[in-house]
Structures are given as C-alpha cells and as structure tokens.
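Sample pair:
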Amino acid sequence: MVLSESNVAHPEQILNDFEIKLKRLIDELSNLRAERNQLSEELESLKAETLRQKNLIKDLEETNKKTKLAVAIAPETEDRSNLKNELNRYIKEIDRCIALLDN
C-alpha cells in the first residue's frame, strides 16, 4: 500500500488538533471545578439548615413534653376554681394565725 501525501497528516495539523482537544479539556476541567465549588457551598448550606432543623425539632419536642406534663397535672376548669378557693381559705387562715401570734 502506497501512502500518498494527502493520506498522511501533517505534524502541524496533529499539533493543532491536539491543542484544540487540550483547550476543550482545560475548559471542561474549569467548568467541573466551578460546579464542584458550587455543590460544596450548597452542601455546607444544607448541613447548616439540617442542624437548625434538628435543633428546632429538639426544642419543639421539649416544649411538647412540657405541654403534655402541664395538661396532665393541670386541674379542670371547675377543679381550678375550687382549688383557688381552697388556697384562698388557707391563706386567710395563715393570716389569722399570724395575727394571733403578733398579739
């Protein structure tokens, strides 16, 4: 098989093709680095948001626990009124005893 000059690539053309491919690769690398940086920033932001959400959940669970406890130990409305009246009677009795001791 005889190679003609038109079938053989010139060294200048090979070098030019190589440079074009190299520039494309460098551009692609630059784009990938920029995308990686953007994704890293987004990841950090999401980590911070996750931490805030976990803290909020913890706070809400604590508030919920306290609310359940308050509801469990809080007397009903009628009982609350009776309890208030009873406490007022005790306070009056204590005041009466203090007055007796002062005499």
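DSSP finds two helices and no strands in the chain.
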